[in-house]
Write a structure and sequence with these properties.
- 40% of the residues lie in helices and 23% in strands.
- 31% of the residues are buried.
- The protein is built from four helices and five strands, in the order H-H-H-E-E-E-H-E-E.
- Helix 1 crosses helix 3.
């Protein structure tokens, strides 16, 4: 009986972690920078937060956690990904089909260059938001990001395509080049 209770508690915690992560994704999907990446803290309207909180059944403390994670991503090492001056094109939750499989990339963008060391000459970036601090240690997550990069490369032949995780602790972890 104790094993069943422990398993039930673990499933509930995982479910809560999953819902917080999904709320973080939704916040990032809806994030629109106001005047570029000037270091100000990203905000979402109270109605947006209420809607997300209801959608993922989160209490205010858990919603605040999702917001803190989303802020860390937007203000972290990948902040350049929201700098309109560097973007030629961008989209959130971009749907692609690769080898017959539907994919949804958290953020896809074409960077036009800049002094950040990440953009440059029309490179494409596939960015995958992760609530975990070290997604690169999980083989299935690396494989998923490789698939995203391959799908974008096929859709944009001859273009440079890069891919990275953006983590809830503010790190950008780029996949090594093929």
């Amino acid at each position: 009986t104790k094993v069943i209770a422990i398993n039930a508690l673990q499933e509930a915690a995982d479910s809560l972690d999953s819902r917080i992560g999904q709320a973080m994704h939704r916040l990032l999907e809806w994030f629109v920078p106001q005047g570029g990446t000037d270091g100000t803290s990203p905000t979402w309207s109270p109605s947006q937060c209420e809607r997300i909180s209801q959608e993922f059944d989160l209490e205010s403390t858990h919603m605040a956690q999702a917001q803190a994670m989303a802020r860390a991503i937007v203000q972290g090492e990948g902040a350049w990904a929201w700098d309109a001056q560097q973007l030629g094109w961008h989209g959130n939750e971009v749907a692609l089909v690769h080898q017959g499989r539907p994919l949804r990339i958290d953020r896809l963008e074409q960077c036009m260059g800049g002094d950040d060391g990440h953009g440059g000459g029309g490179q494409w970036w596939g960015l995958d938001y992760k609530s975990t601090a070290q997604p690169q240690l999980q083989a299935e997550l690396r494989a998923q990001l490789h698939t995203y990069r391959n799908a974008v490369a096929k859709a944009q032949p001859g273009q440079t395509v890069r891919a990275a995780f953006l983590t809830a602790v503010g790190t950008l972890i780029e996949l090594p080049a093929l």
